[in-house]
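Ticket #4471: structure export looks truncated?
Reporter: QA, pipeline team
Priority: medium

Steps to reproduce: submit the single chain below to the structure queue and open the exported record.
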Amino acid sequence: MIATYTINGPLNSSVQIGDELYFTLKTPDSGYTTSNNFIHTGTITNLSSGSSESTLTVNFTNFTNVPGGVNYNSVNIEDYFLFFAKNTSVNLNRIKGYYADVLIKNDSTDKAELYTVGAEIQKSSK
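Actual output as written to the record:
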């Protein structure tokens, strides 16, 4: 089955077709505080990212796995925190090669502090 969600604003630049979509309901105090009940929705099959509005299409197998359940067409998606995970058979977490360029970006207007950044480095050839 297919569900399509319209989201205000652009999508994360890393999301792509084939990623796994998860969600959780935001808690009543709003912000990004969420419940600890993360639910796997399904696989992203189509996406469109615009500056003011974006859409995500997800292939799912059970209505209990989508925000809003059976009534997903009428749900306010802003009540949910959506996030995605990469397919690890395609997108490995290691950088290969001799050079890496990393961009860390804060899209918020609020002050943020980066606590730590780490790297795993191995000599791969002589």
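Status: closed, not a bug. The export was complete when the record was re-opened. Leaving a note from the reviewer for reference: The longest strand covers residues 39-49.
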